[in-house]
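Q: Could you write out the predicted structure for this multi-component system? I'm mainly interested in how the pieces pack against one another.
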Amino acid sequence: MSMMTLEITRHSGPARLGKFHMGEQKLATPNMFSVLTEAVDIEHDIYIASPEVKTKRTPIFVGSGSLNISDKIKIKKDNQILPDYHVGLNVPREMAEKSVRETLRFAENYPEHSAVIQGSRFGDLREECAEGLGDRPLFIIANGRRLIRNPRLLVDVVSSVRETVPPNAALYFPFALPHLFYVLAYMGVDFFDSAECILNARVGKILLPGPADMASLKELPCNCSVCVGRVPEDLLDFDLLLSHNFQEAVKITKEIRESIRANALRELVEEKASGDVGSMAMLRILDAEKQDFLEKYTPVS
Ligand SMILES: [Zn+2]
């Protein structure tokens, strides 16, 4: 019996406010994993790390690596995400089919563990993978970073996966830029991560909340604990820039939760999308083509 479950306390369209139970701990969702690496260790309320990273932080999800390299990967703990067969978003159909087949074959023996939904750009394969994985505490959408660049495909994949996996399963979209958390949460994504906070800090980009070049700023338009009393040159330091980026992302998850509580997420998403082409494209596609999906979860009042 898995110790993990998502208790949904409120809906706002397909978006959900919830508590993710992990052992004794309850984490508010939507939420963001603090990605731990050998060089990055930021305190937060929930973590994710690859298997090589040594850490005592909890609660944590740990990856397992890739089935492309070996299918002899050992699964030891409840919080281990099952390995999957990695393929890109634009591979030929046979490759995507192989990835789904191999991912499902391994997962069969571990029916309670969190797993990755493969299927590349093929909607029917994503659904087949999601359906084949059954009921699990957490599902990860593969190719997150590439999907971001294709709003139509992203909307198709996220909405069909959300409708296929059980409602009380948490959905994790890795590698989302924090300013996209709004529209992704609106589609029913429960977990994000700090990967883009780290990647942007590495190349000197500040999240405001979209990525901006530090070199182009005369002032810091932010009042977080890092930015107060500092000038842009001060943030050329990786740790400081990362700390700002991380705080920005955490702020966004809190804003999202608060707006679901107030039944005002739709308004928040519209407001944020008005300043971001990618979010606006996703919102337009949702409105034009996914009305059933959006309305299905709206409570009748
Ligand atoms: Zn700041």
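A: Regarding packing and overall arrangement: The chain is about 35% helix and 20% strand.
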